[in-house]
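Let us practice reading a record.
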Amino acid sequence: MNYRMTAYILGQIAILEAILLIPSFGIALGYGESATYLAFGITLVALLALGIPLVLKKPVKSTFHARGGFLVVAIAWIQLSLFGSLPFVISGAIPNFIDALFESVSAFTTTGASILIDPTTLPYSLAFWALTSQWIGGMGILVFVVAIIPKNDPAAVHLIRAESPGPQFGKLVSKLKFSARILYSIYIAITLLLIGLLLCGGVSLFDSITLAFGTASTGGYSFHPTSVASFNNLYVEIVISIFMVIFSVNFNLFFFILIGHFKQAIKNEELRWLFSIFFVSTLAISISNFAGGIYSSFADSLRYSSFQVISVGSTSGFTTADFSKWTGFSQAILLILMFIGGSSGSAAGGFKVSRLIIMLKTCLCDIRKTISPRSTTSVKMDGKLIPPALTASVSNYFGMYIIIILVSTLLISLVSNFNLFANFSSVVSATNNIGPAIGINELVSYANFPQFAKFILTLDMLIGRLEILPILLLFYPKAYRP
């Protein structure tokens, strides 16, 4: 591990986080939130005091190996979350450190869960800080760093590979920093488009930015107690639904469309699977809820079911209905969608559709091989052969993923007053960066969980966002060898 380069990158990230705090600091000054602007001021000074000494001299040796990249990403996200929680604690808005850390990690990992029963109690500046954290976390803070700060490509590849969601990572163009800039340009452009469409629907500027940032990051952070249901506006629901789908699609496909490769984008196998999952799930839940008497008309059932399917499937976590009161069949489908998540290379969390495809095809190949031992079988995706190393990697990831969910559920059940299903659902929601859980009293709030349970859920959110390995390497001593 290149310790000097690690310190240099962490210093850059500290300075970047200080810069990101400035708009919230300005809002606190503008609204006269004395406790809050003092909290932001102290945090800004602390970040600059850490960051500036670390970046004064650039290391001679700037490269590091893959394990170094994974460790840097894990440490960077923990650093971001710890400093990100300070404004909540210092201002007194969330005085308990574990609660504040839960809120900070939830924002950066785009989970959108909260310990606040009424989010409107947050001062405007802290609300905007949570939004900023969530929006940056949607594409990845290390991707942002690579986009704006020149980096040695071999080293930067390890950083982005460790942070990027999905089983594979690839550059869009030859220079990695240009790939990062393209991705963020697309991300910003679609976010601005969404803000404009929401404003056209009569939504206030603050709510338009709130909803757009929550949708773009697939974080679903809302400052209304009943989320999107507070608007009771079909136009808003349709617009947000469309954009939740857009942001759960691999961003590489948007680049293909921009350069004129429309057919290549449309024929993408993962995209077709994603749309099929959304369509089949919406139809099944709509029928089940209507037949179960949850809604008096099929139109209402379709309206609320489709929004919730897309919200959970994209791991956004916005809500327009209390789905804990839906039929057991509908809840089971939502739980499955929590596991699957969105596409690789998107802002969405979850296991990822691409991994599901690879696992199912691998299973089919194994069955064919068992029936016909002499037959030649191979796993293909988009017409290309999947290397055996990648199929093995997906299987290993699935094993670790299930173990983490089961162990976390067991640990939370030791202290939680909720039933087993609610505990399990909460862990699944946290690990897949969704937010709402099935079976807890509050629709989104985790206020009634004990502190130990909140800490485990906080760790699960980080593990899920960084896809396990970076966090696990923190506990592997040999990973720190020079």
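A brief commentary: The longest strand covers residues 380-381.
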